[in-house]
């Protein structure tokens, strides 16, 4: 077991940030913490990296107690904080060399670990970090967090505000790191990234709502979701919300995801209802459940 | 075309270019946006989106080319442009250390609303967003989703013709994100033009038309449906990946 | 040690890449010295003075004529009693009063010795000083002239009195003053800002989660500024010496030692500030309001401590700059050795230890 969290709670003054959180991450696992801003993800990361002391509970990270063995943990984990922005006035090479020296290592020593990522930014190694694009910055930050070959890697919202292309590349990099045996705990507000993790914890308002593999979370969802599409999408949501047996209505890409209170929905009845409201080109079909659907129903 | 959109062009951009020294951030883009349209302005980080948007809202001068926003030239009539648009971004929306009410009053004030109008608007907002007793709490203490919804309403206080939203839903939880879009729909149906950037590709599907910028150029511009057909894929996410990946 | 070196290297990158700060860092001392140096001009022209002539005899009249003839002075009016001096000064019309004692000529004749008093308004110390020098040379001239034509030589004694600023802050006061201000600014403000900047950037979080020990982080951040401050001190002292003729009577080695001590005092203050502030802005405000103002106002740099109200005099004792200014003046102007300034040195050392102690106590290895 690489990370073992037992009943951790943390509050600031009287405001509780996380409550009674427990979970375990196996060695070499890619574990995702999925939840919106303010869910307590950052507080949890800071607690696990010894930056905060929990009010209650304890955790073991890479075999060390987060309260007692601060020094050992700091030697064996890599951490990329949420708003981490590197040293803007240092070049790529200088940033990397700096982080290597403070961890008592050199770029050469662990080069094999970062090689895949570093070759992509190497052509720009003399460019200052401040002049890099979001995607490149992120790659550099990951290299810096990896340079001392940590056993456990903590990545707090590494993809927030990053475009879909760079996000995709980033997750591909994480997969490769996983194959090298590094345990990764990553947080993200993007629900579509959840499926890329081995296991995920859905977190909201400081509490973990569910922990499982993404597949199990989706397949254990019992309600049937319908994709609905008509010519008037804006009004569709409004009208569906007024349908007597509606359970929930959410826009979902090009469709609206509709869940009914009845297990067996009378599709004909719904169609007639929509036609009465002047909708045409009505499409109603069963939708594939996503993590986001599950999350919204928690 | 969907019925809330009229044929009147409220944004017209022609060969808009912005250079920073040797570097050309925006390379002669041209497009138009119709009244009441929800226009998605997408692009990878560093593709020139923000630069283009800054020119459209009149806070950055184009190096060459023309842009007409709400009937005013962004270069020569930037003051008029600013009066007829609303703007909200993820990074800055409202003052955290002021209460909800104080924020509304302040922003109403800078847009030249009279005290009476502000009072009326405040009451409307409280009603519409069901703010109730949170009007006296500081904005900093509200959940992000609330803040963003409120900021959107505040950007509409002076009833602008066009509202520019720069990544309005970044980091917001999925339910609030959708509530936010419902607010956008309502506003669009009233005839307000919405110009929005986002990194959520499902949100791109909610737009009437979407443009995708790559390296300072608009590489694609059409309805989500046509774009998916054009690139022969099932989702906007794939359209985006295909476009941006090919260029790199 | 390698880690430490790497850290210091990074700090130097930061410093040398921020061209604007670098310019301020090195441009400011030079600009300040030049400003103070040249604003304090040594030339005077047509200064208004008054005459209080109790003698009203031939000799005093001759001297007054000489003074009148010079382009430096302009006799504004004649007054007839000492009480009028104060009101004349307060009106601000005149800068000096020349007072001839009773029976001036008679005394010169009989006792071969008479006195002229020059009373100056020393709120402008340099003007006062220059006036004194010029009148002195005029009277000296007159005396020499007289003595060449006479068998028995006479002497005209000149007494000087400074009003309002008895200590008379000479032109040499500004070199120690500017040096103190600059060292304080560079050391305390720059370090506190550079430490809080890491907090703002989020890089402090990463440094905290690294095996680097907190004191290594701090020393690493502070070290480059020790170096820069020493360069500044050298620049200021040499400019004072070469351009403005500030004497250097004491040991250069002792001055260097005391300067380094003061730099460390200022740095430890900077660290203390950074432990209590979370943003660059707070650090800057604290440094400016909490350090610069007291340094300028209470250290005796601009306003003489002896003429302050008692509570402020007492308060001035806790300002490290006060002690450093005393030390620098004593070494440069009086040429004293360490034994004369041992008290001041010990006070500075003690203050430094207290600041370092407080910083260590406040420095958090965690975020709370």
Automatic annotation (TrEMBL), chain A:
User: Start and end of every ABC transporter domain?
Assistant: 3-230
User: One GO MF term, please?
Assistant: ATP binding
Nucleotide-binding listed as a keyword: yes
Asked whether the UniProt record includes Transferase among its keywords, one would answer no
User: Pfam families per the record?
Assistant: ABC_tran
Checking SMART domains in the record gives: AAA
- Domain of life of the source: Bacteria
Looking up InterPro entries in the UniProt record yields:
AAA+_ATPase, ABC_transporter-like_ATP-bd, ABC_transporter-like_CS, P-loop_NTPase
Keywords per UniProt:
ATP-binding, Nucleotide-binding
Against PANTHER family, the record matches this protein to: ABC TRANSPORTER G FAMILY MEMBER 20 ISOFORM X1 (PTHR43038:SF3), ATP-BINDING CASSETTE, SUB-FAMILY H, MEMBER 1 (PTHR43038)
Mind telling me what this protein is named? ABC-type multidrug transport system ATPase subunit
TrEMBL record, chain B:
Q: Which UniProt keywords apply?
A: ATP-binding, Membrane, Nucleotide-binding, Transmembrane, Transmembrane helix, Transport
**What is the designated name of this protein?**
ABC-2 type transport system ATP-binding protein
Signal sequence, start to end: none
Q: Which SMART domains match?
A: AAA (SM00382)
In the record, what terms sit under GO molecular function?
Answer: ATP binding; ATP hydrolysis activity
| Pfam families assigned | ABC_tran
* ATP-binding as UniProt keyword: yes
Which topology term describes how it sits in the membrane?
Multi-pass membrane protein
The record's subcellular location field reads: Membrane
Q: Entry's PROSITE patterns?
A: ABC_TRANSPORTER_2 (PS50893)
Source organism's superkingdom? Bacteria
The record places domain ABC transporter at 11-240
Q: Where are the transmembrane segments?
A: none
List the record's Gene Ontology CC terms alphabetically. membrane
Automatic annotation (TrEMBL), chain C:
The residue ranges of the ABC transmembrane type-2 domain are: 116-366
Short name of any one Pfam family annotated for the protein: ABC2_membrane_3
Query: In which broad location class does this protein mainly occur, judging by the first location in its UniProt entry?
Result: membrane
Q: Does the keyword Cell membrane apply?
A: yes
Q: List the GO molecular function terms.
A: ABC-type transporter activity
Q: Where in the cell is it found?
A: Cell membrane
Topology relative to the lipid bilayer, per the entry, is: Multi-pass membrane protein
Q: Which residues form a coiled coil?
A: none
- Transmembrane ranges, per UniProt, are 21-40, 171-195, 222-244, 250-273, 285-304, 340-360
The alphabetical list of record keywords is:
Cell membrane, Membrane, Transmembrane, Transmembrane helix, Transport
User: Which PROSITE patterns does this chain map to?
Assistant: ABC_TM2
GO cellular component terms listed in the entry, alphabetical order: ATP-binding cassette (ABC) transporter complex
| Keyword Cell membrane in record | yes
- State the similarity comment: Belongs to the ABC-2 integral membrane protein family.
The name this protein goes by in its record: Transport permease protein
